[in-house]
From TrEMBL:
UniProt-recorded name of the protein: WW domain-containing protein
Domain WW: 234-261
UniProt cross-references to Gene3D superfamilies, sorted A to Z: 2.20.70.10
PROSITE patterns: WW_DOMAIN_2 (PS50020)
Family: Belongs to the CBP3 family.
Coiled-coil residue spans: none
One GO CC annotation: mitochondrion
InterPro entries registered for this protein in UniProt: Ubiq_cyt_c_chap (IPR021150), Ubiqinol_cyt_c_chaperone_CPB3 (IPR007129), WW_dom (IPR001202), WW_dom_sf (IPR036020)
Source taxon at top rank: Eukaryota
BP-aspect Gene Ontology terms: mitochondrial respiratory chain complex III assembly
Amino acid sequence: NTNFDVTQPKHQERMERWKWVLDLLGYYNEDARISSNSALLYHSCVNQAAHPSFYRALDLPTDFRAQQALLMVHVWIVHRRLISTKSSGKNDPGKVLQEALFDRLWDDTIFRIRHQNVSELTVNKHLGEVQQRCFSQCVAFDQHFNAAGSKTVLNDAISRHVLNVEPNVKPKQAALLASYILRELKSIQKASTDDLESGAISWGLPLDAGQRTDAVATDDDYDADLIGQKYGDWRSALDIRGKKYFWNLTTRMSAWEKPTKAGQ
């Protein structure tokens, strides 16, 4: 599980400083490059989806299903951008990166399933069920484009697959997330190939202050408990066993205990 926050300039500078060593180690060969790029791109989605304000404004629990659904929203947004990049060559870079991105998603999903303390013998079964839900969500969201950009279709998909309710039960929340998704779809089209490959996506605010349907939550909400959430200079992550730990964005030190406000 790669710990890297590409939004931190010091991390980009560190990578550039040691580029010659990484070249010698084969870090920049094609397979390694795709693996690294997909990790950066995937963690950009994880970090954006782990803002507590989403859950406050959309009246969502912070359980496995809701976190996976919101993460899938952001992976789908990136997916739509990648499939819009067509290449006349044999190897379509957008398709290759998209496939690697989904590989990252499923690997991380296994860690998230293990975090639920399920039997290891049932992990693959649960993974299959989660994959089916994720694919169904993507198909439902794609219908927005098949229906000539119908907001009703998108709102219905959000209600069923993210809010976990029937359409029109939470119309304000569905409209709020739909507005966010449409804004981000438009914004990410401006991202260059280099931006995508480096994970440097300029995500907008998770929720605009004027659109919030609930009390404003800060990005560093220490009462929330989301995978990938930022706590001051720290972020949470999962190891391969599904055990949560916290790593410092500046020092890259890690700890098992959740940081406190005083520990920023």
